[in-house]
Amino acid sequence: MVALSAVVFALSWWLGLYLLARDPRKAVLVCAAVGLTGFALVVALDAVRVATGSATLSQVEIYLVAVPGIAWFAVLLELSQPRDSWRSRAGEAGLVGAVACVAFLGAWMAGGVEGPLRLGHWVLFAAVSVPALSAMVHAVLRRAQPRPVVGFVVIATLFFALGNAILVIPLGLVPSWLALASTGFDVALLGIAVAIGDAFDEGHALRRDMLRSFVGTTVVALLFGAQLLVALAAAGESPTLVVLVFTTLAVAIAINVLADPLAGLLDRVVFSRSPDLRADRAALRGTEAALPRRSANPLDDMDEETFVRVTRRALGHFGDLSKLVASPLTALPVIDERLERRGAPDQPLERANELRALLAERIANLKPRDGADFGTTEQWRHYNSLYFPYVAGVRAYAQNATPAGLDPVARRAWQWLVTEVPQRSLHNWQNAAARVIATDLRSNLVAAR
C-alpha cells in the first residue's frame, strides 16, 4: 500500500523539517528532526524495497531503522534537562554514541529487516528501546518540562518501544508497510511534544503556526503526490514510480517548509553585492514567520518563573529583531506608553524595537555607578554578563572568535572573558541578571494593572 506509506512519509518528513525550521541552533529540535526525517526515509525505503524485492535495500534499511531510536534517546536526554541550566554535552554525546554503536552492531548482526528472527534483531531492539525507556523515566522524574510535554513523551515512548518490537523484530505478524504506518502515531506524538516544549520555553503560541505549516504542506502534498499515486494505481507498482512518489513529496514539502531559509540562500547568491538589501529582506521574512507565534494575551496569568524565563529568552535574542517580534514581553504596558510618547504606530516591528530599547536601558541600569567603563569586581558581573555578549556583540566563546572590530572597552571585556571567566560562570551570571531585570519589569507590570 504505497498510498498509506506516502501519507506516513509526508507527515513525519513535514514534522521533522518544521521542527528544524523553528530554530536549527537548538539541539533538541535538531535531534527530533533527525529522528523524524530518519523515520520518513525508513518508510520510503521500505516501500521501494517491497516494490523491487531488493535484498540490498533490506540490508540498508536495517541500519536506517536504528536512526529514529538513537535520535529519540538524544531528544529525551535533552528534555530531561532544565532549559536554563548550562551543561557540557560531552557526557550526553558519549551516551548517544554508545547507544548508536550497539544499535549498529545489532543491525550488522541481523543483516537485514526480513526474517527469520536472529540475535541481531534482539540486540537492535534492546539498543534502541531500553535506553529510550530509561531516558523517559529520567525525564519524568526530573520534571524539567511542562505537564503536557511529559504526557506526550510518556505515551510516545511507550508506543515507540512497541513499534520497535514490530519493526525491528520481523515476526511476520503484519506487513511491514502496516507496521510502519502504525508507528506513525508515536512519531507524531514525539514531534508534537518537542514542539510544545520549545513553544513553552520561548513563550510562543504554537497552534496557529503549526496549523499554517500543516495546511500548506497538505495542499502541496496533495497537488504533487496525488497525481503520481493515480499514475501508480493505473500502471501498477512500478519501482520507478514508487521512487518518484517519495522523492517528489520530499522535495515539495521541503520547499514549502524551508521556504524562508531557501529564500535567504537565494538572496545570498543573487544579491551578493547588496548586503543591506539581504539584511532587510531577511528581517521582513523573520518578522512574517514570527507573527503567528505571538500569543493573543501572553502576559495573562503568567507566573513569576515563566516571566523570568521569557525575559531570559528575550535577552538572548537581543540582536535578533525577528525573534523579539514573537516575545510575550512586547505586550508589556510600558511598551504601549513608550510607543505613545514618541507617536510611533502600534506595529509588531515597532514593538520589537521598543522592547530592545527597553532591555538595553535595563541592562545599562545594572552598571555600577563608580564612573569606570569596565570592571571585573563582583558588582560588575550582572552588567558585564549581559552588556558585552548581547549589546556590544562580544562572542568570547565562539569558535575562532577574535576581538577584531571591537572598541577598546569591549576588547578588554573579551580578554577577561576568554582568560578568566568559564562559560558556565557566565551563563549563571546571565541567569541571575535576567532575574533582576525580570523582577523590575514584572513589578512595573503589576503596578500598571
Question: Which descriptors would you attach to this protein?
Answer:
449 residues, single chain, Rhopdopsin 7-helix transmembrane proteins, mainly alpha, 2 domains
Provide a descriptive summary of the structure in words.
This protein has helices spanning 2-22, 27-52, 55-64, 66-79, 90-110, 119-142, 147-167, 176-202, 207-235, 239-257, 259-270, 275-290, 304-316, 321-325, 333-341, 348-365, 381-391, 408-420, 423-448. With 449 residues, it is mainly α. The radius of gyration is 25 Å and the shape is globular. Keywords: Membrane, Transmembrane, Transmembrane helix. The chain crosses the membrane at residues 6-21, 28-48, 60-79, 91-110, 122-141, 148-171, 177-200, 212-235, 241-259. It comes from Mycolicibacterium parafortuitum. This is Transmembrane protein.
Entry summary:
Helix content is 75%, strand content 0%.
Number of strands: 0
Number of domains: 2
The first-level CATH class of the largest domain is given as: Mainly Alpha
Strand content: under 5%
User: Which residues form runs of ≥5 with pLDDT under 50?
Assistant: none
Could you say what the CATH architecture of the largest domain is? Up-down Bundle
Q: Helicity level, as a percent range?
A: over 70%
Order of helices and strands: HHHHHHHHHHHHHHHHHHH
**Which structural class do the helices and strands define?**
mainly alpha
What is the fold named in CATH at topology level of the largest domain? Rhopdopsin 7-helix transmembrane proteins
Helix count? 19
The biggest beta sheet reads: none
Distance between the termini: 59 Å
Rg value: 25 Å
Mean pLDDT: 82
